Amino acid sequence: MQLADLTLFQAVIEVRYAPAYLLWDHSGCLWSRLSLQFEGLRTIAAEPNQTLFRMGNDFEFAARLENASLSAFKPNRTLTQFTECAGQFFSLLSETLDLAEFSRVGCRQIFTREYPSHEDASRALLESGVLKWPVGKHFNHSGEPIRPEWAFRWEEGGSGVHLRLRVDERKYDFDPPLVWEGPDPVKKDRIALMYDVDWYTTAPVLVTQMSFADWIKQCVHVVNRDSDAFLGGLK
Amino acid sequence: MSAGVRFFEHEAAGTSAATASVPTKPRVVSIDDSPRFAASSMEIDDLYREPSAIRPILGHALRGLAAAKEAVQESLEALRRGELIASDDATQQLQALLPELFCCRELGDGFGAIINALNFSFQNARGIPLSEEQITLIGHTVERIRKEPFLPFDAAAELIGRLEDVGLVVDPPALAALGELLDVEGLR
Fold this sequence. Notes:
heterodimer; A: two-stranded antiparallel ribbon; 5 helices; 39% strand; B: 7 helices; 56% helix; globular
């Protein structure tokens, strides 16, 4: 299996900072300025410590007391629009909340490949050879392993990477109200093999050092270039 | 009506992927998280460690500023050894880098303002060698703009003010000539 065989399900960029109490005063200012830049931004949650907005069904912006994030669901692989939104969002955020430094910046890309069952997805991961599964009875238990998981983290020179490969499940559930006249409710379980790459900084980053456009582009480039070395064994 | 979509479950340690609707609970800030005690900030070369993937203009600026930093270092070392000509050669190398760095000014107003000020400082010196104090301060300024290439104009203006404090003239020579003219005409 190669990275090209997987679908980019979610991309997230998150910044963390020392408690930004100005959020309590300047939230309205932040979101009204962002509304001018992003058409169709709508409120999902507005609480003192967290404000959450969505644009369409694929972009989610969150500003919290100690972190802020932008998530994109099923974005294009080059993350062009995501990068553009991130640049504008975090620039306005740092200006409005008077942030000088991010204690951590992380860019996470989650790729998936769907399988009909847990067993199939688990088998695909185990057959890759990244995990060893001895045949027979172990710890007094026999049977097939379910939902295997493999994770690896390494850090160098102020930044690090956290890689995860696991079998996971998404549940879509909808309970209609009384006298519901829409389509019949459906329940869906999606079983997927998930390849999750989190590229993050471990040293504080000054706001004046950060160009989100360049940093995200760099993450995308590295993930595209190096992932096949890890996925090469997957069937 | 209740609709629920549960995305993948993730560990809390990494970049948060799942949407949280629970408000953040207040917590005690550890000494590591406190800005007062925080570790030194990230090195720019560690932050952009993949030069082929960043904008060429940023890569070019970082390389140019690294060369400028080296030239300042060389100049100061030569000066301390008493080799005035070698020191001046090194500052001339630095001066030669500035027009190209000025082409990277789209990185930010602060970046453009500082490179411009450095360039005019050399032009206004009219070939007279700079003092050790002036070269040292130029070195600090180059180092700062390399570390923080997206410095806002206000912070850049403060750095430019410091250059003026050590006797460097950071305004365009034409402006100085205009000033002289206004003085002669008694209009200033």
